[in-house]
Structure formats: C-alpha cells, structure tokens
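Help needed: design a sequence for this.
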C-alpha cells in the first residue's frame, strides 16, 4: 500500500493570518478558499479539483527561521515575466532572480508570510526557447 499527498501545508505565524494567506494563494492559483473556512480560523484550505492536494494554511506560534526545505514550482499559463509581475502586484516579493537573458531560468519569490516559491517558464514559452536553441544549432 502507498500514500497520497492530501495537503501541502503552510505554517502561518503572527502577524500573518491563515485566511489572508489562503486568499493570496487563491488569487495566484485560481482556486477559491474553501467555503467552510472563515477569517480567524486556525486552519484554512483552498478548494481544489478532486485528486489534487489541497493547500492548507495553519496557524503556528513559531516564526520561520530558515530557508524552506520544500517549495512550490509554478508553471504559468502566460509568460514567466508576466506571472512574476502579477504575483508581485498581489503582494509577493522577489527573493532571488535567476532569470537568464536567453529566456531560461526562474524567479524565486516569497508570499506575504515569507514562504518561498519559484515561477518557471510556461509550456509555450519553454517550447519557444527550445525551438530557438535548436535553430541556432
């Protein structure tokens, strides 16, 4: 027998609220906050399609002290740079910009609570990069 990933859990320490962080990720990923959850709850999840793990935001006492050991890599449905600008407007920050002039690379961002995630190139953008590289030999 095996296990499945049910939740990907984000710790939320003061001054960050689980519901507010869920709202941020709801806007990033396009999945609504679970209608059974409310502001002030200690655990708040996103409503996702069946078979996908839920992002869960849980109130904790201790603040983040080290770099994330696990993070999400996002593949946008637009260009990587457009997605970076969109999440920055939602409240994210850039932690490390690893974008390269040839179009490869990624941006390491942090959500409002400091949880790191990466924005990579999307499928169409990746295909265009590969085609350019193949044509140039």
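Sure. Designed sequence:
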């Amino acid at each position: 027998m095996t296990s499945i990933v049910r939740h990907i859990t984000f710790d939320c320490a003061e001054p960050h609220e689980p519901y507010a962080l869920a709202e941020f990720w709801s806007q990033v990923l396009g999945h609504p906050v679970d209608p059974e959850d409310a502001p002030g709850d200690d655990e708040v999840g996103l409503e996702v399609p069946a078979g996908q793990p839920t992002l869960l935001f849980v109130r904790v006492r201790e603040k983040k002290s080290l770099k994330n050991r696990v993070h999400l890599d996002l593949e946008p449905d637009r260009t990587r740079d457009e997605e970076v600008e969109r999440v920055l407007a939602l409240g994210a920050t850039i932690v490390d910009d690893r974008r390269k002039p040839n179009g490869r690379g990624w941006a390491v961002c942090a959500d409002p609570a400091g949880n790191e995630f990466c924005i990579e190139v999307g499928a169409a953008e990746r295909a265009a990069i590969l085609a350019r590289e193949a044509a140039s030999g």
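The chain has three helices and seven strands.
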